[in-house]
Write the structure tokens for this entry.
Amino acid sequence: MESPPITTTARETQLIEEGAEFRALRRSFRNFAFPVTIGFVLWYLLYVLLSSYAPGLMGTKVVGHINIALVLGLLQFVTTFAIAAWYARYADRRLDPPAAAIREARGAVVHAPREAAE
């Protein structure tokens, strides 16, 4: 059963955003998202720079026809999926409970993320 859409006025939204709970929630998100994003971008740029400026290193064979460039390129995909899984776990533990508490405090109907998908 779907709940009706939640409507808030501009003033209510401003009060939520000014609240200590919401600021703590944003801080928690930023403390995760910014360092992980910066780390991944640096990892990606390392791959690009090595590909451009160290072709001898990147062409080094590891096993058979598999070279370092291929291994590092595939690790980019592995890293992407690992970060997505890490974020999902982080959000379940650190972001979703405070967000649900903020919604409940404002009288909104709250469903756990797993319940909403069913």
